[in-house]
Amino acid sequence: MAAQVAAWDEVGDGRAIFLDCYRRMTDAVVDNVGRGRFDDGVWVETLLDRFAGYYFSTIDDDTHDVYVPEPWLLAHGAAMSGDGQPIQLLLAGVNAHINYDLVRTLVDVLDDEWPANDEAGRARRRSDYDLINQIIAETADVVQDEVVERRSPWLDLFDRGLGRLDEHLAVRLLGRWRTQVWRHAVEVLDDTDGRDERILVIEQQCARRARWLLL
Predict the structure, then answer these.
(1) At what angle do helices 102-110 and 195-213 cross, to 10 degrees?
(2) Burial of 25 per CB tally in 10 Å (0-12, 13-18, 19+)
(3) pLDDT, tens digit, for every residue of 75-123?
(4) Separation CA 208–CA 137 (nearest Å)
(5) Which residues of the chain fall below pLDDT 70?
């Protein structure tokens, strides 16, 4: 990820903004897996690997036959054209990866175990999933200072004026999105006959949100 961020930054490709954020947050989660902070670190690593696969399939030039969902088409298109402020490009990428890719990722990694998993087992999965929210909150300052403000120095003025309010609002937004994602994933898991339709609806919702974020 770091090498791709550096390559994109060198040529002014706006896709570096989201990937730089994603890299730092992924590194933080991996570090906490190593520290034994999760109930099931192997499951969390599986989740991270599958999650990353969805993202990299949208930027791999050798996979022209891979379907790229509309939220990513909008996010990548704006980033590559330079159409949008860094914070808009970051949020558009987060929207696509969290609100769409993460639903599909959770369905993938929970599908086999979900029907037989009891309430306690499902609660353990949810607890590990929610712990990632806390880790995201712990990295919010670093992401703002080293990802967004490095590419938009004028935002530092707002950061100084607002104190920690802006980071708090960003963390609350991501937490709300991730809570919604878990609910959507459970709905997809429980609806074996209507999964494709549910995934399509989620993609359309994310695409509408992307258009609003990129105004």
Answers:
(1) 150
(2) buried
(3) 999 999 988 888 899 999 999 999 999 999 999 999 999 999 999 999 9
(4) 26
(5) 62-64, 148-167
* CA angle 42–43–49, rounded 5-degree value: 90
CA dist., res. 201 & res. 195, Å (int): 10
- Quote the pTM value: 0.90
The total of other beta-carbon atoms located within 10 Å of residue 105's CB is: 23
Backbone angles phi, psi at 89, to 5 degrees: -65, -40
Q: What is the 3-state secondary structure (H, E, C) of the chain?
A: CHHHHHHHHHHCCCHHHHHHHHHHHHHHHHHHHHCCCCCCHHHHHHHHHHHHHHHHHCCCCCCCCCCCCHHHHHHHHHHHHCCCCHHHHHHHHHHHHHHHHHHHHHHHHHCCCCCCCCHHHHHHHHHHHHHHHHHHHHHHHHHHHHHHHHHCCCHHHHHHHHCCHHHHHHHHHHHHHHHHHHHHHHHHHHCCCCHHHHHHHHHHHHHHHHHHHCC
Residue 148: phi, psi to the nearest 5?
A: -80, -55
Among candidate residues 93, 66, 64, 68, the one with its CA nearest the CA of residue 78:
93
- Written as one letter, the residue type at 108 is D
The phi-psi region of residue 163 (left if phi > 0; otherwise alpha if psi is between -120 and 50; otherwise beta) is left
Determine the straight-line distance between the first and last CA of the chain, rounded to whole angstroms: 28
